[in-house]
# Entry
Amino acid sequence: MHTLERLRSLAIYEESCGCIPGGVNSPVRAFTSLGMKPLVVHRGEGSYIEDVDGNRYIDYCGSWGALILGHAHPAVVKAATDQLAQGSSFGISTPYELECALEIKKHFPSMEKMRFVSSGTEAVMSAIRLARGFTGKPGIVKFNGHYHGHSDSLLVQAGSGVSYLSGSSSQGVPASFAQHTASLPFNSKEALLDFLNAHDDIAAVILEPIAGNMGLVPGELSYMHLLREETKKRGILLIFDEVITGFRVGLTGAQGLYGISPDLTTLGKIIGGGFPAAAFGGKEEIMNLLAPLGPVYQAGTLSGNPVAMCAGLACLKELSAPFFYEKLEEKADFLLRPIEEKILKENLPITLNRLGSLFTLFFGVRKVHSREDLKELDHARFNHFFRTLFETGIYLAPSPYEASFISYAHTEEDLAKTQNAILSYLEAFNE
Ligand code: PMP
# Structure
């Protein structure tokens, strides 16, 4: 295999290792499980990123799903730079928080009130505190392989970058913290009912309705409705973590697709237009418990940052353009349908899960409905596949436990090149 020249990337990575643990500011960037040296990029434009050695890659990671419009979209750049020139942060209310909240509420009516924060982790951590404050109960139910950020109570059987760790998913989380969090198999009605029948101290059930952090694994429709009914019946709050799916699977997120109104929702990624912004929100009577109205404390120096709000708003406005999601889905269909057909026709030991502009190829498994289905996942095959595409200038999500993202900026040429690369890889699959 031809190997890209990445000398400058390597030099920066090695020097970074001296002052940044593992050389990276988020573990999955280190490419450890791939056995490769990480990417070091300096620019992105549309569907491309460019590393510091000048190699260009068609980007299907898109800052982990944040960049639904691609890199440096002109409307987002303008909104952010215009605001930047007026001041980058005040720690005081601005009109843009209101505008952004109204725009989100238009599409997520379940978020009667919301608060902005700076990361998905913060949004989920705050939603959990609020759920506990509202119900007066300590217990949280999550699902194996679902990732909700790195706050203490949620690092239990988490997906994404922590899939490679065992136990409570992290040292440094006292057992007494993790003991209030139960993690169940996803999409199993029996496991859910058994658990809920045996416990009456549960504040909330939190899930990624369409999981993206164990690869793409959508919740089954009847399961999702059961979850809604059972939580409502028992006075348990249902929290949809839509940090990935919000504004990704459609303007109204996963809750719109399933026709389910959760009690609380968390958003991130897309709503910041590539800047650090996230939100949590839901029923007014729950949200009114937050300080200064109520006794649940939550705050943030950079919360609702004006540059992030303006960039996010510009991004959200683009998403309301006629047929935006239909066109995005057409791109996905163009890229993936022939691949899907080949897998089926040749009965390859691969599962392609896809929904809208999200997809994951699972090597070595025939169906994936939960984390339990991934026991036989073929990591060596995934690594080889990832590397082969990387060397031809295609950057897919760098882990078998992540979804890849198609953006509006991907051109027919990008998609055709990617499709050909994947089909030829599959052609040689049994050799
Ligand atoms: N929830 C979900 C569903 C996520 O995918 C992520 C991050 N990938 C988070 C929460 C945490 O968000 P952040 O990385 O912005 O803290």
About this structure: The first strand starts at residue 41 and ends at 45. The chain has a mean pLDDT of 95. The pocket of 4'-deoxy-4'-aminopyridoxal-5'-phosphate is lined by residues 64, 119-121, 124, 147-149, 208, 212-213, 241, 243-244, 268, 278 (CB under 6 Å).
